[in-house]
Amino acid sequence: MNIGDWGHLSVIVAFAAAMVAALGYFMAARQRPLGEADESWLRLGRTAFIVHGLAVVGVIVALFGIIHGHRYEYYYAWSHSSNHLPVYYMISCFWEGQEGSFLLWIFWHVVLGAFIIRGSRQWEAPVMAVFAFVQLFLVSMILGVVIGSLKLGSSPFILMREFMPDLPVYKLNPDWVPEDGKGLNALLQNYWMVIHPPTLFLGFALTLVPFAYAIAGLWKGELTKWVQPAIRWSLVGGGVLGVGVMMGAYWAYETLNFGGYWNWDPVENAVYIPWLVLVAALHALVLWQRGRTGLRTAYSLVIATFLLILYATFLTRSGVLGNASVHSFTDLGLSGQLLLYLGAFVVLSVAMLVWRWKQIPVSEKELTMYNAELWVFIGATVLCLGAFQVLVTTSIPVYNALMGLFGVKTNVALPADQIAHYTKIQLWMGVFVALFSGIAQLLWWQKNSKETISNTLTIPTILTLLFASLFILLVRNNGLPMSLPFIAVLTTGLFGVLANLSMLLQLIRRGVRISGGAVSHIGIALMLLGILASAGYSNIISKNTSGLLYSREFPDDLNRDNVLLWRNQAAEMGPYKLTYTGQFYDVPGVPGYVNKELLFRTADEYKALARADIKQEDGKTYYKAGDTLEIRPEDTYYRVEYKHKESGKQFVLYPRAQVNQEMGGLLASPDIKLFWDHDIYSHVSSVPDPSKEKDWSEVKEYTVSMGDTLILNDYVAVFKEAEPATNLAGLGLSKDDIAVQADLIVSGEGGKQYHAHPIFVVKDRLVGRVPDEIEALGLRISFNNLDPTSGKFTFGVSTTQKDYVILKAMEKPFINLLWSGTLLMGLGFGMAVWQRGRKPRPAPATKVPRTSKAPQVA
Amino acid sequence: MGWLPSGWSNFSAAFASATMKKTHLLALVVIAIAIGIVMATAGDASVYVSFKEAKELAADGDLRKVHVVGRLPHDAQGNPASLQYNPTLDPNYFSFTLVDTNRIAQQVVYFNPKPQDFEKSEQIVITGNMRNDVFVADKILLKCPSKYVENEVKGATAAR
């Protein structure tokens, strides 16, 4: 048996063990009150889950072994990895594919299951029954078993010849193995892609825990006790998922070129929606724990969160999005299975909720304006409404598919301007969340009356109004518009920060523990302010001001947001003077980037010869002329110097582009200069097509002597000398052959000098010429002839269009508020988890009888 | 609570004691907002249309942006002949002809650099509207020949 068979066997074992575990735990909990599970069934369930966990680890080891060992006979390794991929990116290939990402999700469930088994005591049997049931479904997605015409799951251990049996090569050689893989999508070759997916899937997995507790509570009729463990897990989940989403946003900001961190792509929305609902659920849970209210809401939202995670999975993995998303997973033809899975969980969990609905305790007391609970409740409602909007819009492709099932052809498309569409609701969600989080936090820690309320609210409110007016004046003074919605975001955002901050300070003064809630609310409000500044006032500085316009058909309302930069020719752009100075490569082991002009490419595209000593800014010489070095040929970095016209300050950006046929041409990634108060974000939007042959002008011949000066296409060149060339790699010269190398020095723009070394060869009595190209000047010089008697040398010179880039650049003011707000939010979640872990709250005061069938007051 | 009208608490107390409870009131408000959200989505949603319909919409003064699906026409040599992009003159002007699913050809202008490999795309989805007999696109989505891969090119409005 080989590694793939072992892997596939492990998948099957994991599947079977999940089934046994589900059965064991189910039987253990069935018809028995909580905490009195049947011992032998429980033991069976537990053992089976441990076997399941070990099998899952086995699957992961096998799959990673295949990727790490470059075993391209397996489709997964071939389609996601390649020979030149560093090990840390092999980790990312692991979850680039659908199967691997399911595996990651399954793995986190195993880890969390282990925590539940260790720590949940009386809850183990019913909670783990839910866990094992979910695992059963998830493992079935990678099972890869075909029964008749029914395909159950897609195995990551499928062989190339099973996946593409029609490749002609298999007719000639059935044992053919590809030599190299297709490689990892270049955009995913980023350190964030090593940690973002695991974080996100951990967040996905964490939503299962409160869901499983909720279902267990419904099942066992323990309608209130589940809240306490569920809160802690929801806190962990909310923090991890929130940070995971923002990691994705940061990756998009750094790597993609749509000019921001959030694009309302369905894949992003699919995670954003459950996160909002999870946070709302968390607040409802806290409301029950503190105010004995909102339990039905908590139940509904906890269950909705998990169902939305499943819906997100369906959206992104079934292919239903089709044209609507840039980066949904490839369609594996599993949509039926996914739909079944989603349907089963929706029906089962909603049915259980309906069954127990009347028994879920409801608070009799009416909340007033003085109750923090009321504001928390309204805040949670606002979050749900925000989630609702994103859900309704993101599901548009689903409506078309749904109507298609009934034979009705619909042609609804996503809004053409998604940003405007989402902003008009999400902005107000932000406003109210910031406002209510401030009010609720101020009221939360004290008993309130009219007196105390005005005392606590006065100072933050006055400060807010003061700062808000100040900022509005500042913005207006800078000649920028400030619309009413923006004023609302600014004011409430400031209020959110100040109200939560004042509570935090009061709590510290009173010696009470620091509130994690207040910290994360400050974070959220800061994020809101950061989004307002960086997105609302994002400013494109690469406006085309050359005056050259192709057409003036639509002069007024269209932006022309890209500028063309000729190599080594400074151009003005906003407050900057820009110069594009050349193409660079990333050379492993050398800091920074290495100029392409210093490298001589070889037949092996991953190797190059150094044409001169490679010295970097630190003064160290990393390679000597003639050394062979390794390069990363996929990425070209375009060096652009920025010089601020007023302050004279300079910096250099290296936006990256990769020519990738498979991904549809040019993959451009921005380079970002960080200042404390703004970012300068720029990317190339077009370059001369490198895969196209250049158009060279007709060759013009020059016959000169050593030391002569030539005028080549506006450039002055000096023919310094010609000398016998020795040790020329790749020419394969023997003793009797002759090679002469000329040295020409061409002066380019700004006095920069370039050396050209065309070579003249006589090999086996045949004349050969190796021309040299000065890319920066668009010159190609060949050494055409030499006449030893007269001392005359003939050079052929042809010219081409000079190298250029088309660049787009923008300014993102105060984007650091967003990132620091994210960190604070994560920190706040962490603090809350820690505090709840240290000091368990007292048991609920009002006990609800376990098997009470008495109707509750609605 | 100086920041609220003085009668507010009396009002809300009276409201609460009335037959309609505050939770019910909240529920009504929530339902109203939810309906508003659905309406807003329906209003903002775009449609897939042909060039003929796009022209009709524009003629009616409806400047809503629409989606059009089409292909590039190819000449006898199999090259897309209609592409016009001269970055040295204006890097922000790209024009081409698109043939929609009803085989109607239409000139399209895209005020951005030409997406790389545009010529090789099999199917193109554009978003925008008709203005003065040309279709002004602000987003281009290319479907490339390789089976699964697609690439979206964001235009001016999307990048803001």
TrEMBL record, chain A:
InterPro entries cross-referenced by the UniProt entry: Cyt_c_assembly, Cyt_c_biogenesis
Pfam families named among the record's database cross-references: Cytochrom_C_asm
Key words, A-Z: Cytochrome c-type biogenesis
Top-level taxon of origin: Bacteria
GO molecular function, one term: heme binding
A cellular component annotation (GO) from this entry: membrane
Protein name as catalogued: Cytochrome C biogenesis protein
Organism listed in the record: Hymenobacter busanensis
